[in-house]
Amino acid sequence: MIRKEMIAMLLAGGQGSRLGVLTADVAKPAVAFGGKYRIIDFPLSNCINSGIDTVGVLTQYQPLRLNTHIGIGIPWDLDRNTGGVTVLPPYEKSDNSEWYTGTANAIYQNLKYMESYNPEYVLILSGDHIYKMDYEVMLDFHKANDADVTIAVMPVPMEEASRFGIMIADEDRRIREFEEKPEHPRSNLASMGIYIFSWKVLREALVALQDQNSCDFGKHVIPYLHERDSRMFAYEFNGYWKDVGTLSSYWEANMELIDLIPEFNLYEKYWKVYTNTGAIQPQYISSDSVIVKSIIGEGSEIYGEVYSSVIGANVVIGKGSIVRDSIIMQGAVIGENVILDQAIVAEDCQIGNGVRIGVGDYAPSTYNPKVYSSNLAVIGERSVIPDGVQIGRNTAISGETEAADYENGLLKSGDSIIKVGVKA
Fold first, then answer.
1. What CA–CA distance (Å, rounded) separates 123 from 129?
2. Are 352 and 387 in contact (CB under 8 A)?
3. Full-model pTM
4. Which phi and psi (to 5°) does residue 334 adopt?
5. pLDDT tens, residue by residue, 306-359
6. Which of the four, 140, 142, 149, 312, has the lowest number of CB atoms within 10 Å?
7. Of 229, 239, 237, 201, the residue nearest 217 (C-alpha)
């Protein structure tokens, strides 16, 4: 029988509903990041950099982009005869067909996959965070403490602790109590959603909780093991880690990449971030263009001005256009004499000539205030914006729009245009 010391199970099925139109047609882990990458590249790269060569990627919501991106794992050196990367969607069984109904339920439905490698340890990861971590160091900590489960934690400001699962640990880092989003937190050690389980402990817990509705690690598995006095330890991580689950945090994480000394360095020789780029032509930077403090993706053609922005691959920015503090994802075409200020333009959009995006002052969203609550104008993928229109702040657009959709040529701040059939 094949035996692997540790395998990774990467949860990548989430919709990422707080990213609004950006995840209308694509799973959150497949959203572009940093001009070149997709969010899932970071945990996948962490795995291979940590010596983990067997990764199951659990997909569910809008998996096509993710499946195509991962392929057989060549960019991450995960195209292995034994192990490698395997995409694990929900599948039809002889008696029924089940969607994954929670993080732990998704892992439970893939017991046979894990059993086929007979691992000593199982690493559970989320596919939607930006960070670099050596999981081998975490495993050493797990072994040294003879732990049943080790949970990666990060100190957070006390005033933010109520947003997280909070660990209360003793001086030996053994977890004595666990509180899920407590109103009055007694610790600031927040769970990062990264777990190492000893395989026998994980298997027993998953089988015991198999009938639990919407079974999750934080809500069910960890409390179950805590009640049984399992050896649970908190592994403290003090590096860069960003949950890009909201439009503001996603935009901020991209903008941090273009700082003169970025807190998160994409270009370290000894901890590379790998991605599937395919064959892309070189950039073309016009002699009339201006580029200041920006990332410009391969294959892009820049004829206008770009300031403090992240530009993806194969983007065209037309003559006379000015892009500021914005994210433009791959394949987008920005016409001539366009002004973009604090915008996120998703993949394969077409922005007409003379368009102004990010005009006026902030106004609360009339569409979805829980998702849209910043100055950002957000344009969903494959959207079309006609010539000459103006778009305010804290706005959302998705679909092929035309001049008649804009009252007096303007989409006011806080408003939206979502074409029929588009979820956002």
1. 15
2. yes
3. 0.91
4. -105, 125
5. 999 999 999 999 999 999 999 999 999 999 999 999 999 999 999 999 999 999
6. 140
7. 201
